[in-house]
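As practice, study what follows.
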Amino acid sequence: MKIPVSISLSTYLAYYKKGDNCEPQRKLKSENFEWDANHPKSLSSLCVEKLSENWVGSPKLNELIAKDRDLFLQILNTNVPLQILVDNIKNDVFWKRCYYSKWNDSLFTNEQKPWINLFIERFYADVLEKMNPKNYDPEKAKKLVKLCGPYVQSLIIKSLVPSDIPVQRTTSPEMADLITCRRQSEQKTSKNIHHLNRDHISLHAALGSLTNLTELHITYQLSSVGEEYRRDQFQFTNNDAKNLASGLEKCYLLKVLRITRSDMNCQRVKYILRGLSENLNLETLDFSHCKIGDEGASFIAKFISKRDKLRNLILTDNLFGPDGGEHIAHVLNHTSCGLRTLDLRLNNKLGSDGIAHIAVSLARGCNLTS
């Protein structure tokens, strides 16, 4: 293949930028990928090029010899329908090309995942982030989950669209197979309506079939508002919490759950923790910047008292005071509490009394290390 997949980019650029001034006596220049630009193409190459232009899954890649298969994967258009690509191509180099052809930003991850997983995880998150609840089609969503589910291990949803945002501002080509036309009755909304439904898309179906999901990070907010800004567009409703909890009930392998920068009051905390009641693998629970009060802290305390595998609890910037701190401190010394890290930064209402409760638990020899 002409694509430099076996050498690092820095090595390639070190030779390529110097051109003829680099080792002028050298006749064989392996970094020159245009060495055969003026050579007539072979008949097999022409056939492979024509095949790539009209390929819809047939012939199968294993029917091509290795040389032709490499050329085919190098020139195949990455806009081929995802279903066809997933069913037929597992090549890591091809999926890396798909990723960078769709997103130009650099990928920062310490996980050694196949590129097909990285691509589908981000593709799936993008679809959910841009989907308008008014055009949500459960049946088509299930088809997408069935396609992407086996490859999604980590899901990061940075924003979600509430139901009152106009569709045309959030529609993208990737959603063409997911959304349906708006009903005419929905277009004739009354001007006198002041209380709009702020629910986001239901994550029950979107999460319930992700059997390999181990990490979920979700934020119920808008990343782009424009001229239609209203404070209530950033609400996290009770229905959102119930739907999310229903989806979490089937995520038995989930190890990391992060719900951050969301309007999650005590009742919604209760819904979420109820959805995690059957999960015994959870290791990290992050409710940062979520407006959780004393009652919500008591629900969290009851939850962690029964989770010996839970190691990290992050409650940065919430609203609970000394009473909430006391509830959490009380369970730190339970034998069934396996917590090692507790983050209570920016909880200004905790006060000296709340800190004192935590200090007493530390003095009694709880398992916290940080």
User: Anything to note?
Assistant: The chain is about 40% helix and 5% strand. The mean pLDDT is 84.
